[in-house]
Amino acid sequence: MAQISYEPNRDYYRLLRIDSEAGPDEIRAAYRAAMRLVHPDLNPARQDSTAAAQELNHAYDILSRAPLRAQYDQLRREYLNRRRTSATRARRARRCRSQRAPRSVNRRRVIDEILARVASGLLNGLTS
């Protein structure tokens, strides 16, 4: 049985260049077309053809079996939801930071206040 995991840089749908809603016939046609491009017997000069063919075989094995595809789709959805959630949090954090005054303005204000107090203390003879 094939091991199922989702890695975003090895998305099986993207590897076969198909939509996630593709049917069995589309998956088979995409697999065969992709395999013609990377098969070691058809491309002996390509150094990574064996590894690419194995990866395509694995992708086809997962996507061609309904129960395995369902598990893969679930893992893929969970990853995409986590990614979407973290992106939303980052956007909210940026929005909150942008609504506050910039740090440089706050620092400048504090430095101006300190210098004003020091200057007023020097003028009043409080500091030496």
Overview of the structural elements:
There is one protein chain. Helix content is 71%, strand content 0%. By secondary structure, it is an all-alpha fold. It has one domain: DnaJ domain (Helix Hairpins). Helix 2 (24-38) runs antiparallel to helix 3 and helix 3 packs across helix 4. The chain is elongated.
Oligomeric nature of the chains: single chain
Question: What is the H-and-E element order?
Answer: HHHHH
SS-based structural class? mainly alpha
Most strands sheet:
none
Percent of residues in β-strands: under 5%
N- to C-terminal distance: 83 Å
Q: What is the fourth-level CATH superfamily?
A: DnaJ domain
Which CATH architecture would you pick?
Orthogonal Bundle
The fold-level CATH name is Helix Hairpins
**Anisotropy-based shape:** elongated
Helical fraction equals: over 70%
